[in-house]
Specification:
Blueprint: H1 10-13, H2 24-57, E1 61-68, H3 74-85, H4 94-117, H5 128-144, H6 146-158, E2 170-172, E3 180-182, H7 189-197, H8 205-217, H9 219-227, H10 229-237, H11 253-256, H12 265-270, E4 278-285, E5 293-300, E6 317-325, H13 341-353, E7 362-368, H14 370-378, H15 383-386, H16 396-414, E8 421-425, H17 431-443, H18 445-452
Parallel strand pairs: 1-5, 1-6, 6-7, 7-8
Antiparallel strand pairs: 2-3, 4-5
C-alpha cells in the first residue's frame, strides 16, 4: 500500500491516487468528480462548524449582576465561584498573582513611608530613647525608598486603561477620617498584563524582574517596619486601619517577599484588583443541576461614579448578588466623608430593590466581611454609636441579626412586587465557608426555580 494512503493528513489522503492506465478523458471526469466531492465535503464541514457555533451562542445561561460598594468583596466572591467550579482556575496564573500580591504589599509599605514623611508622625520627644527610635525609622525609610520607584514602575507597566483614582484605586480605610489614596490598575484584565510581562519582553520583563529582586532584598526591612511599635502607635492615633484593606499583606511580608514565594489560594482571594466599569466573567458549571450551563457574571465597579453603570446590563439578568460590607459601620465614604458607609449601603440597597427594571429579578444578599466586624466589636468599637436605632448588645450575633432584619425590611417594603430574598453572612476570603454559600446558591430554591422555569 502506498505510504501516503496511511497518512492522517487530509491533503495526502484525498484525492486517492489515479488508476493505472487512465486515459485523458477518464482523467478529466475523475478530476471533475473529485472537485465536486471536495466542494460538498467543505460545505458539510462549514455546516458542522456553524451548528457548533450556534449551539455555543444559544446554550442555556443564567446572567447575574454583582453589585456593591468599592471594597465590598465583589471580585473576591467571583474568585470563589471560579475556584469552586474550577479548582485549578488560578494555577496557570500563579506568577502573575505573585506580582499582584507583592504590589499590594509595597503599596502598604509606601503608605507608611508617606506617614513618616509627615513631621507629625515622628516622635516629638527629645530624649535619647525617642531619638533612637526616630533614627531607626529614618534608616528604615531610606533603605525602603526604592519601593516607591518599584510601585511607579509596576503602575506604568500594568495599568490596563491608565491609573484609576479615588476609591477605585487603593483607598486605605480610616475610622472617622479621610482615606489615603493611591492610583491602581483596574480589574482582572490587568492580571493578563502581569502574566504577559512575565513571559516576554514586550512590557519590560527585565525591569519587572529587577523590581521583584528589590522587593526580595527589602524583605527584612519591611518586616521590621511593620513590627515597629512607633509605627503601630502612629497608625492607631491617626485611625488608619490598613488591616481592613483588601490586599493587606504586611503581617505576611516575610513569606510574600521571600525569593521562593508562590501564592496560596487564600493569598489570591485576598489580593486586590479593583474593578472600574463593568467586567464580564463566564463560568461553565460542570456539576449539579446546572451541568454544562454558563453562569455569566457582570462585576460592576463600586466607586460613586460607577454605581449607575450597571443599568444597560439588566436585560435578561435573572439574579442580583448584592454585597454589603457590614464591617464599614464606623467609616465614611471615600468620595463623600460626610456620609457613613453603612448608611450609603442602605441607600444603594433601597435603590436596587425599588428599581422597576429589576422587579422580576431574584435577589441574593451577602452580608460580607463578618470577620472584620467581629474583630471591631470585640475590640470595643460601639456599633450603636454609628447606628442610632440599634439598642442590643455589642456582639457579632446581635449586630448581624439586626442588619439581617433591616435589609429584609427594606427589601420587603420597597420591592415593586413580592419576591424571596436569600441572605447569607459571609467572609469572602474564607474559601471553605464561602464554598458552602456557593453550594446553597447553586442548589437552593432560587436556582431550582430558575431551572424549572427553563432559565437553566
Amino acid at each position: 500500500m502506498s505510504r501516503h494512503l496511511l497518512s492522517k493528513s487530509h491533503d495526502s489522503a484525498w484525492p486517492p491516487p489515479p488508476p493505472a492506465h487512465e486515459s485523458d478523458s477518464e482523467k478529466q471526469i475523475r478530476l471533475e468528480d473529485e472537485r465536486k466531492a471536495r466542494i460538498v465535503s467543505e460545505s458539510i464541514d462549514r455546516s458542522i462548524e456553524l451548528e457548533k457555533s450556534e449551539k455555543q451562542k444559544h446554550r442555556a445561561q443564567i446572567k447575574i449582576l454583582v453589585l456593591g460598594q468599592s471594597e465590598s468583596g465583589k471580585s473576591t466572591i467571583l474568585k470563589n465561584f471560579h475556584l469552586y467550579f474550577h479548582p485549578q482556575a488560578f494555577q496557570s496564573d500563579l506568577s502573575a498573582w505573585r506580582a499582584v500580591i507583592r504590589f499590594n504589599l509595597i503599596r502598604s509599605v509606601n503608605c507608611i513611608l508617606d506617614l513618616l514623611d509627615n513631621k507629625g508622625s515622628r516622635p516629638s520627644s527629645t530624649d535619647s530613647a525617642s531619638k533612637a527610635i526616630s533614627d531607626h525609622l529614618r534608616r528604615l525609610a531610606l533603605r525602603l525608598a526604592p519601593l516607591r520607584h518599584v510601585e511607579n514602575l509596576l503602575l506604568r507597566r500594568h495599568s490596563a486603561s491608565g491609573p484609576v483614582s479615588g476609591d477605585e484605586g487603593n483607598s486605605f480605610p480610616t475610622r472617622g477620617g479621610a482615606s489615603i489614596d493611591s492610583p491602581l490598575y483596574t480589574g482582572w484584565k490587568a492580571l493578563s498584563k502581569f502574566k504577559r510581562s512575565s513571559e516576554s519582553n514586550v512590557f519590560g520583563v527585565d525591569d519587572v524582574d529587577d523590581s521583584q529582586r528589590v522587593i526580595e532584598a527589602c524583605k527584612d526591612d519591611i518586616v521590621s517596619l511593620w513590627a515597629n511599635e512607633s509605627i503601630q502607635a502612629t497608625l492607631k492615633t491617626r485611625s488608619i486601619a490598613l488591616e481592613e484593606q483588601s490586599g493587606f499583606f504586611l503581617p505576611d511580608a516575610g513569606r510574600v517577599a521571600a525569593h521562593d514565594y508562590m501564592p496560596t489560594t487564600n493569598d489570591i482571594l485576598r489580593a486586590r484588583l479593583p474593578t472600574s466599569g463593568v467586567e464580564e466573567h463566564r463560568i461553565v458549571i460542570n456539576e449539579g443541576s446546572g451541568h454544562g450551563k454558563d453562569w455569566l457574571f457582570y462585576d460592576v465597579g463600586g466607586a460613586g461614579g460607577q454605581r449607575a453603570v450597571w443599568a444597560p446590563f439588566v436585560d435578561d439578568v435573572k439574579v442580583v448578588i448584592f454585597l454589603a460590607p457590614i464591617c464599614a459601620f464606623d467609616q465614611p465614604l471615600d468620595d463623600d466623608p460626610r456620609t457613613n458607609r453603612l448608611t450609603a449601603v442602605f441607600d444603594s440597597w433601597k435603590s436596587v430593590c425599588g428599581n422597576q427594571l429589576l422587579s422580576e429579578v431574584h435577589f441574593i444578599l451577602l452580608l460580607n466581611k463578618c470577620d472584620i466586624l467581629d474583630k471591631k466589636l470585640k475590640s470595643g468599637v460601639p456599633f450603636a454609636k454609628y447606628v442610632s436605632s440599634y439598642r442590643d448588645a455589642n456582639d457579632t450575633r446581635s449586630v448581624t441579626k439586626y442588619l439581617d432584619r433591616k435589609f429584609e425590611h427594606i427589601h420587603k417594603t420597597i420591592s415593586p412586587s413580592p419576591r424571596k430574598l436569600y441572605t447569607h453572612i459571609t467572609c469572602a476570603i474564607n474559601a471553605k465557608t464561602t464554598a458552602t454559600v456557593i453550594k446553597r446558591i447553586q442548589e437552593g430554591a432560587l436556582l431550582h426555580n430558575l431551572l424549572t422555569a427553563g432559565y437553566l
